[in-house]
């Protein structure tokens, strides 16, 4: 807490909120001036402790939202986000409006009661993706749209940690500096928080774009809580595919690290022809998916994000992208063209195929695609689909990776280790022989187990097969007789 570093009375107070509340308006203003331009200006009635004391009053959700709006207005110069059209958007919106009306007070009380015991001082020393720990709670119990409104911002902790640990291996930590990290579909920033912590918050700058106003708001809060306020001006609310904001002149800006969990399938038929233009020819080098005759909502929008990422990656940069597992064995279309480029340009570091139900909100099997043009002719393919613990979560089943399983995946990848039934290391010629498949399972050796048996044991096995076949033939004959009998009993009736 910056206030404690500046004022000894606050540092030694039993409750710092009480010490701040007791200060005169002038003293409080002077203290805030000393804290620097990137620090939020809060008044005593903005404190969590104040809201906690008011939670049993009527219309608590109204007070909760009014407080958020007041904080946003007072700090707009520091924490506003720009849209792709240049408009500035406030830090907060009325968050309870996304919750079923009858549950709004309950929802806001639940948040305050979760936060009252939480030490915000700890997050600046122990690294903390603030929203990662409460998103499943929000999605499960309070969302008015079965996970839709909040689920779009959430990537499971295990996926985010694995991506960061592979992109920024332990041996490189503390050595990287002055790098840029980008996510074109950032959500609340879970992936970026993990990568920034691995690199070091002061050693990197965050750049994002996301079409959702709510996700941009949540991302800003994550940046504030994770000592990354310097990157807030780089948070853009807007359509990355139609209006990519981050540029160097007329060209797309290139980044050192890119992470993304883009939407997989979405109906973008209304803007499909706008994207398939001469301006976007280089960016969407593999083409824009056509509009299917049926199920327009299943258009593969992730292929556009993947092409955008490849175009935005610096030479020598690294990227990690969540894709549907079907992509890694694509046989045709835009998907196959992207795979062909990755192999031709030797941009693959490897793939990790995750267990089913690793995401709380979708049953789609996912894989993480790792890109690195500085890699040798060794590509690591990991099949983690059989790992994890199955747990029941309400009506859904989820898969959770243990800490040791996460370490095993990261170790196999970073050390380029071939582990039976888990990982293989292949070269590009082998990938071409396998029709560009990046599925680890297709490269595993086929194991045939032999066991010695005696003539007597062999005869017994054959006899059992013969007996089973006799029973099946007899049963088939009986069915044949019954079917003919039923056919003869049919009569014409009109």
Give a description of the structure.
The chain contains 20 helices and 15 strands. The protein is an alpha/beta fold and 494 residues long. The strands form three sheets. Strands 2-1-5-4-3-8-9-11-10-12-15 form an eleven-stranded mixed sheet.
Low-confidence stretches: 3-8, 135-153
Portion of residues within helices: 25-40%
Overall outline? globular
- How does the helix and strand content classify structurally? alpha/beta
* Radius of gyration from CA coordinates: 28 Å
Terminal residue distance: 87 Å
Average pLDDT number:
81
Oligomer: single chain
Number of helices: 20
Largest sheet: 11 strands, mixed
Strand residues, percent: 5-15%
- How many DSSP E strands? 15
Order of strands side by side in the largest beta sheet?
A: 2-1-5-4-3-8-9-11-10-12-15
List the defining traits of the structure above.
20 helices, eleven-stranded mixed sheet, 39% helix, 15% strand, two-stranded antiparallel sheet, globular, 15 strands
């Amino acid at each position: 807490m910056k206030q404690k570093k500046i004022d000894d009375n606050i540092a030694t107070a039993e409750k710092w909120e009480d010490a701040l509340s007791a200060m005169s308006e002038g003293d409080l203003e002077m203290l805030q001036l000393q804290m620097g331009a990137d620090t939020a200006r809060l008044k005593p009635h903005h404190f969590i402790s104040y809201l906690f004391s008011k939670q049993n009053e009527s219309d608590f959700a109204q007070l909760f939202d009014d407080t958020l709006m007041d904080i946003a207005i007072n700090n707009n110069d520091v924490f506003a986000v720009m849209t792709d059209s240049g408009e500035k958007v406030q830090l907060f919106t009325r968050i309870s409006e996304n919750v079923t009306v009858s549950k709004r007070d309950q929802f806001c009380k639940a948040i305050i009661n979760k936060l009252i015991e939480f030490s915000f001082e700890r997050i600046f020393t122990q690294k903390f993706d603030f929203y990662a720990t409460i998103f499943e709670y929000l999605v499960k119990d309070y969302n008015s749209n079965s996970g839709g409104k909040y689920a779009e911002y959430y990537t499971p902790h295990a996926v985010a940690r694995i991506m960061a640990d592979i992109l920024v291996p332990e041996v490189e930590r503390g050595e990287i500096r002055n790098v840029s990290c980008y996510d074109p579909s950032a959500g609340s920033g879970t992936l970026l928080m993990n990568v920034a912590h691995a690199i070091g918050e002061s050693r990197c700058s965050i750049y994002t774009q996301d079409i959702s106003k709510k996700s941009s708001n949540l991302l800003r809060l994550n940046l504030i809580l994770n000592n990354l306020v310097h990157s807030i001006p780089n948070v853009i609310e807007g359509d990355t595919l139609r209006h990519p904001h981050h540029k160097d002149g007329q060209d797309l800006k290139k980044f050192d690290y890119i992470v993304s969990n883009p939407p997989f399938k979405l109906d973008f038929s209304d803007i499909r022809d706008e994207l398939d233009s001469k301006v976007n020819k280089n960016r969407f080098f593999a083409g824009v998916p056509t509009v299917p005759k049926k199920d327009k909502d299943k258009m593969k929008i992730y292929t556009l994000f993947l092409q955008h990422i490849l175009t935005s990656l610096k030479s020598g940069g690294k990227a990690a992208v969540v894709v549907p597992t079907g992509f890694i064995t694509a046989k045709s279309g835009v998907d196959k063209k992207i795979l062909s480029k990755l192999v031709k340009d030797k941009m693959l570091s490897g793939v990790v195929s995750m267990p089913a139900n690793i995401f709380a909100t979708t049953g789609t099997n996912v894989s993480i695609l790792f890109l690195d043009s500085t890699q040798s002719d060794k590509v690591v393919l990991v099949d983690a689909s059989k790992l994890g613990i199955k747990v029941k979560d309400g009506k859904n089943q989820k898969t959770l990776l243990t800490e040791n399983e996460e370490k095993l995946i990261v170790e196999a990848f970073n050390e380029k280790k071939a582990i039976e039934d888990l990982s293989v290391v292949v070269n590009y010629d082998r990938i071409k022989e396998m029709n560009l498949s990046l599925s680890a399972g297709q490269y595993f050796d086929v194991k045939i187990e032999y066991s010695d048996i005696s003539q007597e044991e062999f005869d017994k096995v054959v006899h059992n097969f013969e007996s089973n076949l006799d029973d099946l033939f007899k049963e088939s004959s009986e069915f044949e007789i019954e079917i003919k009998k039923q056919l003869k009993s049919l009569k014409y009736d009109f």
